[in-house]
Structures are given as structure tokens and as C-alpha cells.
Amino acid sequence: MTHRTLIRSVIALLALAQTFLGQQQLVPKDQLDNQTVLLTPAKTHNHATDDQIDGSMHPELIPNIAAYRLFFLAVGLTANPSAGEKTMQSAQLQQLGFEGKDSEGFTRVLQTFRAKYNDLVNTYNAKVPAQATGFAPDVDSFLSERDALVQNTLDELKVELSPAAFNRLGAYVNVEKTRMKISTGNQRSSTNK
Q1: Which CB contacts under 8 angstroms, 24+ apart, belong to 143-146?
Q2: CB < 8 Å & 24+ apart, contacts of 64-68
Q3: Any idea what DSSP says for residue 56?
Q4: Would you kindly state where each structural domain of the chain is located, as residue ranges?
Q5: DSSP characters for 113-150?
Q6: 3-class DSSP state of 181
Q7: Which pLDDT tens digit goes with each residue over 18-36?
Q8: Which DSSP symbol is given to 37?
Q9: How far from each other are the two terminal CA atoms of the chain, in whole angstroms?
């Protein structure tokens, strides 16, 4: 398997996960039966729905903010990455043609993105038990904060990367949209930001 095929597979899996998670509902912790995540399926669907955008058919309908988020999650490393994760990220950086300062800056910004994204999700999920008392977490605020985090990360990358590297990143993510599927149920807006 080539590095390009591996990268595409990872992005496709993340897009599939995003699609699946778009069909999820939050469940209080005490109802999870020792599961490690706070999201459990509301229903299992084995077919495409009208509230899904298939990038292979309409990549232009995938919002840039969603495409970058999926890409950043696929490429960004956690705080303590395994050797395999580091190798995969290195292959992805080579695919983008990033070297030296571009590679270092990209890695640093995405590690910060991943940490902030995880904090944002954990904070939101911590509010889930409050649903049992009648308090519903504010999904719109979460989605606004999530999109703002992606935009801020893009702004940081524009400063950290050379103009040529930043342009290659944009072109690469646009091509990868053809391998993405997203649920429109969890999108704040359908506009390409």
C-alpha cells in the first residue's frame, strides 16, 4: 500500500466516521454500560440519506470548514502519538511537499488544534449528564466554537507556512473532498467558508 493510498484510506475512514457520528445522539454517562465514549448510535442506517453530502458526486457542496476539520483530525497528532502515528503524519507531510519550517510549523499548529478540539468535545460531552435534569447542551454554540477553532487554525497556518505550502494544502484538501461524505445534520451552514 502506498503512502498516498494510506492517506486516502485514513481520510475516507474519518469522513465515514463523521457521517456515522452525524447520526448519533448523546446519552448520559450512566447509561453507557462501561463504554469509553459519550456518543452511541441513535439508529443504524445502511443506506445514504438525503441529509448526506457525498463528495465523490458533489465535492463542491462539502464546506471548506468541514473538509479542513476532517483533514486536521486525520493528520493532527494527539499529545502522545505512537510511532505509527508519527510515521503516518510524516508520510502525509511528504505528500503535501512540506519540509523544514513548513513541516515543523504545520505539525506544531495541528498538535495545538488537536488538543483544543479534544478539550472542546470533552467540555461539550461533560454537559451531557445535565440532560437528565432537563438541561440541553447548546449544540449551536458547540458547532460555532468548533468552526471557529478550524478557522483559527487555518489563520495560524497561513502565518506559519510559506505561501506555496499554504496553497498546496488548500489544493490537497479540495482534492480530498472527493473522498469525503458528511452529514448535513451537524453542519452550521452549507456555505463554503
Answers
A1: 143/186, 143/187, 143/188, 144/188, 145/120, 146/69, 146/117, 146/120
A2: 64/173, 64/192, 64/193, 65/147, 65/150, 65/151, 65/193, 66/18, 66/180, 66/182, 66/187, 67/173, 67/174, 67/176, 67/177, 67/180, 68/150, 68/153, 68/154, 68/173
A3: T
A4: 3-186
A5: HHHHHHHHHHHHHHTGGGGGGTPPP-HHHHHHHHHHHH
A6: strand
A7: 544 444 433 344 443 433 3
A8: S
A9: 34
Q: For the segment 145-192, what is each residue's pLDDT rounded down to a tens digit?
A: 999 999 999 999 999 999 999 999 999 999 999 999 998 875 554 344
Report the C-alpha gap between 24 and 190 in whole angstroms.
20
Output the nine-digit C-alpha cell for 180.
469525503
Closest CA to 193 of 166, 170, 172, 175: 170
Q: Please, which residues bridge with residue 25 across strands?
A: 40
Distance CA 58, CA 80 (A): 36
